[in-house]
Specification:
This protein has helices at residues 2-14, 70-81, 83-88, 101-111, 124-128, 164-176; strands at residues 34-38, 43-49, 58-63, 91-97, 116-119, 132-133, 138-139, 142-146, 152-156. It is α+β, with helices and mostly antiparallel strands.
Length: 178
Amino acid sequence: MRNILFVLLVFGAVGMVPAQNQGVVLGQKAPDFSLPYATKDSVFRTPLVLEDLIGKAKIVLAFYPADWSPGCTKEVCTFRDNFSALQSLKTEVLGISGDYTWSHHAWARHHDLPFRLLSDHDHKVARRYLSFNEKTQYNRRTVFVIDRKGLIAYMDLEYSVADPDDFGRLRDALSKLP
């Protein structure tokens, strides 16, 4: 009986979810990844490695459900329209969805997007960042800021394109970081 109680106490205290599925926490080191990507100019054969960007700029990871959808178009166009302001805050924007790079390339070209779109087709990265919806099998709309030390400095797990305050809070968080 004592062993059963011990097991219940231990699993109750730390949870029964393996560490790799617990997602991210503010102040924690951002999980590294390597993903193929595209821009409005090209589809790149060499994957983007998150670790290679750490220390060079603040990083916004913007997970979204799908290229070409109205809500996602509004989201990336908001980033596009505010790109100069984000660059003045020394910020790198990375859009991430499950779409293939050829779709990203066409969509980025169509909307003149000045940032990279990463292809997480198997959603491994989205799952690590608590940004995958198992029910719909699409990414949820979430936003993370990674500081220059590689730590999660801001996260919005319910980012909404319908609420301009969400982008305002993201911009404010970026402006407070060195």
